[in-house]
Request: fold
Amino acid sequence: MNYQPDTKGFYGDFGGAFIPELLYPNVEFLRKHYLEIIGSESFQKEFNSLLQDFAGRPTPLYFAKRLSEKYNTNVFLKREDLNHTGAHKINNTIGQILLAQRLGKKRIIAETGAGQHGVATATVTALMGLQCVVYMGKVDMERQAPNVARMQMLGAEVRPALSGSQTLKDATNEAIRDWINHPEDTYYLIGSVVGPHPYPDMVARFQSVISEEMKQQLQEKTGRDYPDKIIACVGGGSNAAGAFYHYLDNKKVELIAVEAEGLGLKSGHTAATTQTGSEGIIHGSRTLLMQNEEGQITEPYSISAGLDYPGIGPLHAHLFKSGRGRFMGATDQEALNAAYELTRLEGIIPALESAHALAALGKIELTKDENVVVNLSGRGDKDLQAYIKNLSDFEKD
Amino acid sequence: MNRIENLFQNKKNILNIYLTAGYPKLNDTVEIVKELENAGVDMVEIGMPFSDPLADGPVIQHSSTVALKNCMTLNLIFSQIQEIRKSSDIPIIMMGYFNQLMQYGEEAFFEKAAHCGVDGLIIPDLPVEIYSETYNDKVKKLGLDMIFLISPQTENERIRLLDEASSGFLYVVSSASTTGKISNMEQEKSYFERIQKMKLKNPLLIGFGISDKKSYDTACNYASGAIIGSAFIRALEKNGSIKQSVHEFIKTIRP
Reply:
């Protein structure tokens, strides 16, 4: 089984570029040149130096002693939460902004749900002195007002997506429409391993620094460069793609992807795409998505705005269908409990997205001699409101 | 020869009007098409409302949202087209997104469309390569035309490829935009001239941003006619009967 896309961008049955002809010249140009550009020595040098000095990499691989005792295993946390701007998102935006610069683009557009990718994009456009427009669902702008303010402080224009359900899927539609309307000067900086080829592969490559570092850090800490299990949350799936990337072909490593079940699989309020979705096209990619029998894309729900996406990247759809990945879900409540637990046991407040990955620890069989890496994709400052609101319930239990 | 090819052989300055099925009201589709035909419109493009229409601007997005709230379905569109066919031979194109076909079943969709009297299809997010490899034989066998789009950014070599894969006509997008943006037709003259000079296999219709008599006339100078969508949808939003809205609007294009 091959886990890299073919030249047309297909991972098995999934991927490709199902885009209006108006986008073809831009996407085709990217497809032809992205590997050559990001593989060049000058690109790699600049990328690595910004990851180190600007983003703060490498991020630590932390042995969580008390958490390990609780689950009777060895839990390592890959601390993506310690990146500049508070999540793994910056790895990708640094990579893509360097690419956009080399393509001579002056105007950057992006979509954002919770605002994390929007902030990471506004950060690198400020760094490079480029114009930045971020599309964000009107509903999300209200839910995530502090991140709107951060983007504006960084000099970005935040435009409300007023169409459809006014959340991430609609913000992505608006960004794609903007690109159709500005094909010459604009670069679309996608935030996850979604969209038309080559975006899923490109974003996975920029995020693959996560598992690249893990290999070396595990070698030092455990004497072996691979763990038994890697657990990561999946919305679109960029942090999971990065955490899995260098282990895709190593069958000794179990890859566990955790989706947001929201209020529960049967509640009608969920974002668990593999469990409730079917094959189709979303945002230019053939993949698994949540839709009705007419092919109308339905609105997902999760307490975590970063997992609130009705599709998953084509790599993940392929991992799911081929059986290489183990997909499971965590509900809002399970994620909240896992977040409180990590806070009290290890003194780390995780993002609600990452809390879904942590929740899997209580739902899988673990043994004492196993090494488990949980990708702690982001920090929880942005979720304090939800945490404070639900804390008393947790303390009562 | 199907209805589209017949039309292009016999008429110039073709006016093709886009409407969203199920908008403004669920069962307005049949009446709108009949009135368009009465008003002298040559061809209609019936949009299948979709939740995430990437190539469409706000006006058509809104009409799609309303049509979906009205509970429009593909089977209902097909039965409306069958109703139209009882009394009309106007060429009919269906326009929609590939995910809708996938969920219906691509082959079943093509068969049903042909059976109901549809003449051509526009599926903007179906890549020409995948179409040619997988669906062309079936579509051609059923006598349906597949119409592809080109834009000012499309390179000549690719224009030839899209022309080769198309039948009926080639859809010339007037400028780099989603539907419904007023385009500066004067500015695009060199692009239209370039396409004209290529002597393509298919006749051309210019669409996106055609909204009034002036832009329609300009399009007719460079192509076999034009397609109007958003401006017509906006006209339907006005008060008054469908008959009145349709005839008033068409009069502004062809006085």
Summary: Chain B touches chain A at residues 50-52, 54-55, 57-58, 61, 65, 68, 73-74, 97-104, 124-130, 148-151, 153-155, 158, 162, 173, 176-178, 181 (CB under 8 Å). The mean pLDDT of chain B is 96.
